[in-house]
Amino acid sequence: MGGAARMVCTERLRLRPWTSSTADLARLADIYGRIEVTRWLGGPPTVPPAELVRRWAVIASTDDRFGCWAIEPRDGGAPAGTLLLKPLPHGVGEVEVGWHLHPDSWGCGYATEAAAAIIDRAFAAGVPEVYAVVRPGNEPSLAVCRRLRMQPLGRMTRWYDVELEAFRLMAPVVVE
């Protein structure tokens, strides 16, 4: 799938691949340079924003069901954050959805709206279930999982070497 085909739109948002543009790299540096964001990710990225964009493009190129998207409000402004859909480490075909938003975009419902759109896209592409993992205490992300109607699975260390709250959402059963 090419860049334009990888775009996903919702009523309020446009999800598109991050680019190496000066504006995108500056926004990524701002998002992932904030302790209020990275404290829930286990710390800031160990690579510069341009390398994040490159790595995310590789994820998308290996399987077009996956990707890391910039969450852009359709009414303008800087990207609100990142939405990702990728294989879980140490998993056996398990897929993770995640979101990292800039604090100036918290409380707008963007994470839920973007995640719902990407989960629907994944299910339409044949992904049977999607997981989310959240650091204990990250109440806003736990609330997103609840709004997405994800089933809580309890705390696990299965995919990352840290205890995380795990959630799962199964694809709807299609009755013919």
Low-confidence stretches: 1-5
Q: Characterize the overall form.
A: globular
Order of helices and strands: EEHHHEEEHEHEE
- Secondary-structure-based class equals alpha+beta
Q: How much of the polypeptide forms β-strand, as a percent range?
A: 25-35%
The main β sheet shows up as: 5 strands, antiparallel
CATH superfamily of the domain at 8-125: Gcn5-related N-acetyltransferase (GNAT)
Which second-level CATH architecture of the domain at 8-125 applies?
Answer: 3-Layer(aba) Sandwich
Q: Measure the end-to-end span.
A: 29 Å
Task: Write a concise keyword list for the protein shown above.
Aminopeptidase, three-stranded antiparallel sheet, five-stranded antiparallel sheet, disordered N terminus, 27% strand, 176 residues, single chain, alpha+beta
Description:
With 176 residues, the chain is an alpha+beta fold. The radius of gyration is 15 Å and the shape is globular. The chain has a 5-stranded antiparallel sheet with strand order 1-2-3-4-5, with helices on both faces. Helix content is 30%, strand content 27%. The chain has a domain of 118 residues: Gcn5-related N-acetyltransferase (GNAT) (Aminopeptidase), CATH 3.40.630.
Topology:
Layout: E1 8-9, E2 13-17, H1 22-32, H2 35-38, H3 49-62, E3 67-73, E4 81-87, E5 95-101, H4 110-124, E6 129-134, H5 139-147, E7 151-156, E8 164-170
Antiparallel strand pairs: 1-2, 2-3, 3-4, 4-5, 6-8, 7-8
